Amino acid sequence: MTVRATGRWRGIVAVALFxxxxxxxxxxxATLLVGVVGAGMAVYPRLSRPPxxxxxxxxxxxxxxxxxxxxxxxxxxVTNTGDRTLADCRIxxxxxxxxxxxxxxxxxxAVLRPxxxxxxxxxxxxxxxxxxxxxxxxxxxxxxxxxxxxxTVAAGTEIQxxxxxxxxxxxxxxxxxxxxxxxxxxxxxxxxxxxxxxRPGDPVGRIDSKRxxxxxxxxxxxxxxxxxxxxxxxxxxRAPAYRAEADGRPNAVAxxxxxxxxxxxxxxxxxxxxxxxxxxxxxxxxxxxxxxDHETALWQLLGTHPAFxxxxxxxxxxxxxxxxxxxxxxxxxxxxxRKQLGSDTQVLVLSPLADERIxxxxxxxxxxxxxxxxxxxxxxxxxxxxxxLARRERRLRLRTLRGADIPVVDWDPATPxxxxxxxxxxxxxxx
Amino acid sequence: xxxVGLGVRPLGQxxxxxxxxxxxxxMVVGVALVxxxxxxxxxxxxxxxxxxxxxxxxxxxxISLGEQLRTDAETRSVELLHTGTTSAYGAVTVVVALVTYxxxxxxxxxxxxxxxxxxxxxxxxxxxx
Lengths: 431, 129
Fold this sequence. Notes:
Largest interface: A-B, 50 and 56 residues
Distance between the termini of chain B: 34 Å
Shape of chain B: elongated
Radius of gyration of chain A: 30 Å
Helix content of chain B: over 70%
Radius of gyration of chain B: 17 Å
Structural class of chain B: mainly alpha
Number of domains of chain A: 4
Number of domains of chain B: 1
Oligomer: heterodimer
Number of strands of chain B: 0
Low-confidence stretches of chain A: 164-180, 315-325
CATH class of the largest domain in chain A: Alpha Beta
Largest sheet of chain B: none
Mean pLDDT of chain A: 79
Order of helices and strands of chain B: HHHHH
CATH architecture of the largest domain in chain A: 3-Layer(aba) Sandwich
Mean pLDDT of chain B: 76
Distance between the termini of chain A: 50 Å
Low-confidence stretches of chain B: 3-10
Number of strands of chain A: 19
Strand content of chain A: 25-35%
Strand content of chain B: under 5%
């Protein structure tokens, strides 16, 4: 909860002083008197205190498990549980980052007497997957507007929407980024590889008994060895990555996070070790691992770590200073990550490729010997010159990466990630 | 002069706040000019100033609502309450000032001086809080 003074009445002091000065200089008592009104108005904001905000929030969903692409009506009720009237209570509901509002407005302003309830409803477009509502932001001003209190009210609400395409077991993409890694080494496994001469120490079960019965010769059957891969999912959540097609549409980081959630749940069904990392507010790193505990830790990290926040960090102006520190920050985070990554870990980068530096970072990662794949949600649009330029720049970055032998999946967020990956798998990773 | 204030207010975007401030300044200067050259009565001057400030306050409040909640949110009750309170307080200030002015002192310059002093003390207290 933050309390701040808005300072909106400050200029009125100047008005009061102005009238006093004019009245004295021109010898007009009536004008001088106006200064009293000015002073009275200047005192006005001092008469009120910052409001004490005690609210309760309740959300009702028209349909808790809607079919895909049906708008869902969300009714939010905010009740004043304190004993003071909130004269100016502004509520912005925490619509899940992946969902966009179809009709109505998730924002509301109301006068709330003690015990009174404000209710407003709006409809959201649903996207496949599980979506958690963020806490609603409440800004309460006192009656004069001199102080405002900003706080959040939480209510754990969730929309679960059936996936349009059944989630893919990622192992269906043999040499993709995340499937089981099939090797050309002979050993124990399932798929037949070769037959070789028996060497002492070979397991008895692998001796080709039929051939031994037929010829009396000892041979050992080799199978294609399967190694579990270890994959690190890396999310680009730096300030430049929080781009969206338009206001009110989910930003690229939200798309990336949704993609990560799908990949984590798909990969946790295989034997592959999954790790998680993010560039952004701070470096987040969780080394690849397997098992239920690890999976729980990953989900917890996705839900709570500040780097995995789908709302953009506070206004980052394109001022020189901020940009430079950001650049240094990315380099530092990338170096740290390279130090912590095991050398045989594949890296799967999810990034909108919104600037050059992430391209450099990805190339550095690939050059350091990590098998790197990029999934890039496309949030650019046509329209103004600037937008077209952004789109072209992104295409060039894709081309740069592909030129450096790094496969890039160009993901249009309108289609589910599973479908896109399946298509890519069919095309054998356009490189 | 009121037209200045009215005409600039519907303009949107970030410049709106600046326009509203300019409108208040224009109205304040206008009231001052009327007070100097036409020697208008205190009621008209006080009323005009209080109304100008109230109008500015409502406009600024509306802009802040628009910034935080955008234009499609339901905000009527809050705006009505805010407008009502500011206007009522303005009216009370005007009445108090007038009553003190009329009955508080015998000589005009003295009465004005007392009020000037109290106003100055208030302002100083505000400025050096």
